[in-house]
Amino acid sequence: MFFKKNRDKEETKKLYKALDTLALINSTQDLDRLIALILNAVKEVMGVEASSLAQVDPKTNEIYFSQAAGGSELVKTIRLKMGEGIAGQVAMTQKPMVVNDVKSSKVHYKLADTKTSFETKGVLCVPLIVRDKTIGVLQALNKLDRQDFSKEDLKIFTSFANQVAVALENARLYNLAVYDGLTGIFDRRYFNAWVDQEFSRVKRYKTNLSLMMFDIDHFKNVNDTHGHQAGDFVLQHLAKTIKRILRRADLFARYGGEEFIIALPETVVEDAIQLAEKCRSIIENESFVYQNKKLPITISIGVSNYRETPEDSVDGFIKDVDQALYLAKEGGRNQVQVYPKELWQQTHLKKAA
């Protein structure tokens, strides 16, 4: 009786931990952060050495490990066919699997341990299902107390995974709606909606806002010479490189093709110019190597600032930064140009007349 009460108490603790975690999980739409939260929660709630989340690639129908916690990052290099290994079996059958001794299992993909140098002893693997479709699997590996995974563990883990699947799908749909599919940064629609609100706030409270717009010099040559896949690589690598040096408050978006835009809240023109020059220099010196070929990449950048050239509308403000980018390209490319006050004054004098 004592052991039963003690076990029930432990299961209740796990259940409360899972519920607390689910509240946190459902509060974020950032996919990478969401998966990290999920995997750390699995380790804590289930009391395991490691956890991993694998997703189904819709193009190839293969299983790939997007993240792991506690194990080796090398697990990300592994791809399984549907039905291959424990993860592949669970994804294919949509049924959870408990394997408490992988050495005696005919299903366990032993090459995974060889590749990652991680010793898997026991696995609890459950499917992530949304609208009857498997989107991935969630795994808990090696209980820290060296006990077997129990039926109670399976119940809690399955309930947890059902909620995780919904949270992942919601985050995926959110990401599709606001992020550019290629570069992973915000798309133009989201930027336009955000900057419209921010511009209204800036006008009302007389605060500051700077914009940076840039595009890749001679980008057509990259596509024509090396192919569109090389062009995609450049866009992705450039976006990651620029994103690393921006503040959390800054909004970075792909505006169209090879054109990008950055909104810098509460930023004076001098600081915007300094950041633009930093971006220009970093890209010029960055190593863009595609299929063992180094691609020389530079960018031209335009800058506008609300305090310096206070436009009446957000469209006018964006037009200013676009004009500044045009000046940078006309001036010889690989440079930073600010929308001139003189040009702003001429435009507004014409309107007044």
Structure description:
It is built from 11 helices and 13 strands. By secondary structure, it is α+β, with helices and mostly antiparallel strands. It has 2 domains: 2-176, Beta-Lactamase; 188-352, Alpha-Beta Plaits. The strands form 3 sheets. It has a 6-stranded antiparallel β-sheet with strand order 3-2-1-6-5-4, with helices on both faces. Strands 8-9-7-12-13 form a 5-stranded mixed β-sheet, sandwiched between helices. A two-stranded antiparallel sheet has the order 10-11. The longest helix is centred in the middle third of the chain and has 28 residues, at 151-178. The radius of gyration is 26 Å and the shape is elongated.
Which characteristics define this entry?
353 residues; alpha+beta; Beta-Lactamase; Alpha-Beta Plaits; six-stranded antiparallel sheet; five-stranded mixed sheet; 21% strand; elongated; disordered N terminus
Q: How much is the radius of gyration in Å?
A: 26 Å
Number of domains: 2
Distance between the termini: 92 Å
Q: Which segments are poorly predicted (pLDDT under 50) over 5 or more consecutive residues? A: 1-5
What is the secondary structure topology, with strand pairs?
Blueprint: H1 2-25, H2 31-46, E1 48-56, E2 63-69, E3 79-80, H3 85-93, E4 97-99, H4 111-116, E5 123-130, E6 133-143, H5 151-178, H6 188-205, E7 209-216, H7 219-226, H8 228-243, E8 251-256, E9 259-265, H9 269-285, E10 289-290, E11 293-294, E12 299-305, H10 314-330, E13 336-338, H11 341-352
Helix pairs in contact: 1-2, 1-5, 2-5, 7-8
What would a concise description of this structure say?
By secondary structure, this protein is α+β, with helices and mostly antiparallel strands.
